[in-house]
Amino acid sequence: MLPTSFIPVSHLRETPAVRVDADQRRLIHMAASILLDYPTPERYEHFHLIRSELAAANLPTPVAQELARFLDAPQTHSLQELEKHYVSIFDLKRRATMYLSYYLTGDTRKRGTALVRFTEAYRAGGREVARQELPDYLPMVLEFSATGDAEIAGHLLSSHREGIELLRTTLESAGSPYAGLVAALCMTLPAIDQATKERYLRLITDGPPAEMVGVTAMGPLEPFTFGENHGSR
Fold this sequence. Notes:
Blueprint: H1 22-36, H2 41-45, H3 47-56, H4 61-71, H5 79-90, H6 100-105, H7 110-124, H8 138-147, H9 150-159, H10 161-173, H11 178-187, H12 194-206, E1 225-226, E2 230-231
Antiparallel strand pairs: 1-2
Helix pairs in contact: 1-3, 1-8, 1-11, 4-11, 8-9, 10-11, 10-12
Keywords: Nitrate assimilation
Pfam families: Nitrate_red_del (PF02613)
GO molecular function: metallochaperone activity; unfolded protein binding
């Protein structure tokens, strides 16, 4: 299929906030963490267990339907198909990256500071990153939300909501079943306000910043702070 010059208006829709309890939110975020990560053979073997856990959780219908868009998609029927699709979407599109701070900072000198803030947020929740991955990697943030401090994780996700919405829109436009996972995630977050919506629309128009500086130019580092009861430790 040839690329098009337009994004359908339906793909610009706002995902509604859906009421879920804390246990349901943790389950959704843990499932999305695994399913949005690169499909290694080990992860792929757990897909049927994830499907069973989600089915048994009696999730709200809109969320369950979005998750099923991925789990029931033809692209997920074999590991080889899924690997090929994953690379074509997430490795080759600037507007479909899993690295949340990239949407706001691109490859500018601010990126390093943004990455440090994710690390400080994890430390504020009593965790250290043990994986060879950048700390703003969406599956990692979702794992932290599911197994760590959900309040701090919620702040990280909400403060990068416009990037998550751009990711969802890009996946929708590409016809990717991964759009269902991101849509389900968005449904567990608060409804976006007008300011976030405007930033989201600007991201669609302009894309992430393109200044090529490199992530090592961190500049002054500011510790993560969140509310009155959380801080860097």
